[in-house]
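Example record used in the benchmark description.
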Amino acid sequence: MPGATSDTMLTREADSVHYSFDNRGLDFDFRAIWASIYRSRYPIIAIIIGCLALGIIVTLLTTPIYRASASVQIDQEAAKILGTEQTNASSAIQDSERFLQTQLDIIRSRALTVSVAEELGLFGNAEFVNAMGYDLADEASGSLSLNETRREQIISLIDENLAVDLPVDSRVVKLSFNSPDPRLAVQVANGFAEGYIRSNLNRKFDASAYAREFLKEQLDAAQVRLSESERAAVDYSRRAEIIDTGPSGQGSASGSSSVTTATLVSLNEAYAAALARRIAAQGIWEGYRKTPRLSQGKVLDNAAIQKLLEERAKLSADYKEQLQRRKADYPTVRQAKARIDELNDQISKISQGISSSVRAEYESALAEERSISRQINRLKKEKLDEQSKSVQLTILQREADTNRKLYDMLLQRYNELSAEAGVQSNNVAIVDKAAIPTRPVSPKPLLNLALTALLGLALSGLFVFGRENLFDIIRTPDDVKNNINAPLIGAIPIAEDDASVMDEIVIATSPISESFNSIRSSLMLSSSHGAPKSISFSSTQQGEGKSSTCIATAISLGRLGKRVLLIDFDLRRPNVHATLNLKNDYGAADLLSSGATIDDAIQETAYSNLFAITCGAIPPDPTGLLAAERAREILSELENRFDIVLVDGPPVLGLADAVLTGAMTEKVIFVIESGANHRSSVKSAIERLTTSGANILGVILTKYDSNASGYGGYYQYQYKYNAKK
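Model output (structure tokens):
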């Protein structure tokens, strides 16, 4: 048993190494992935080589495409020439991205494409179509005519080969055109750059022309409204008999420049002057009435009065002198007296005349004052009446003033636009014109090879993924552990150099022999009382190495000194007698169908401690024989006579033989050939056995090639280690 213990420990050590890798918390088992790739290495190589070959062929057959690029600078604001140009609203800094995107959309617009195509004469140009390697339609499409259909095709062809690129943090747009003809690429690229500038200028001119036309219409309408409002004001003034004496016939809102107002103002001034004169004349007159006439200044200032007073003074002096010498009735005295009286009379008349003139001046001033006052009172009434009429006139005049201001403003803006229309400033300029390209941009051999290589890798990955998931074949011990609900007892490597299992089992140090030693150790430690008394071997289908595994396990157990009996219960295709070179005249079928004894059926083999019961003649009803109670009785008796009874049972297939055989033995070992079964079929077969009452001990994986599966020596080191030991 030390050897068995050593084998078991090595097996567990190998398993623990594998599990320690899986328990790292990784989502992927990279060893399993590598194994999947390794198993599909030849298809992968073929796929990659095919893709590379396809890439080379496509590269050689692809027409070289040349790309010509022109650079155009786009500024948000054009330089102001007149100083009156308005800044575009999109020139705001926060709107720069939208402005630039708008310009890119304009460059890509259908209108610009059509304009460039017409400018370069690309419509109906057979040379352009041939140079682009394109075939125009021979029939009209839909509701379009043939010419319209071909025109649309050329527009689409230009759009497909035009590229517009604006680098980040830059205002220089790159216009590129791809063509098999490098000169044609240059022509179209420069055509788009120049066409974009021309389109930009045309749009500005069109916008200015539209604005001028709009302003002209508004100006004409404003002129009509101004004429109507002025005419309405004049007509109302004529009907209301309001004469406006303001400048150019434009009175104030209050009507203060009307004739009545002007007259009233003049009369007020005249009344003030008349009032002043009347007051002055009245003062003089009052003074004349209260003072003697000869004491009044105006009388004294009179030259005639002064002359008469002088003359009277002389005569009075002469008269007084004569009275001193003569009597009053003296003729000279009387004459002097008469002359003095005459002078007094003259003085009185003159002074009275002066006084009358002062009074007349006062009365004249009073009469003038009263006359002006009456006129003012009359004009006041007329003014009040005029003011009530002036309200409507004021409204009409205000409307006329408003229309005049609007007309003046529109006229000024129209004149500015007319001046700006002749000066076109542009915010777009060509930085670099397209030059003739010397190298094609496609095809790119290295890039194509890299892409086809990546395509090959991607297709290979899809192939591997599909192969591993759609064709979920059991290949490795890990597949058994992860996908089959049964423990793994061991894995039998594929025999080298076309040798058979029986050839390898006789060599104690061969990998196959070591594998069965490991399986033997697992069987001996499978329960507390050692190996099961009876074990049935079954598989999903024929040819999976079930019989060879059963026989090799029996040989390995016999080497430990165990008395082992091998029964061939595969009553449809028996194989034990051929493998062990035994007679098949009498066997299990005879035991089950007749009253033959067990001793007559047991044969000794060439291997120590190994006995066998072959199938015998193939019965007509194998299922009926296995279902009979005698089969269980025979198996029970054999368990009592031998240490271990191994039953080479039939495969599950679609028959009930394996189900009956598995149910009558203590344990069942399920044999799976590496790379021959899908997990679904294996799980279905095992489930069928367990449902019928079979107790599955575990699974043995046969014909396992670790190199072909991609795991290399990972599952082989234990065998080589044992072999050295």
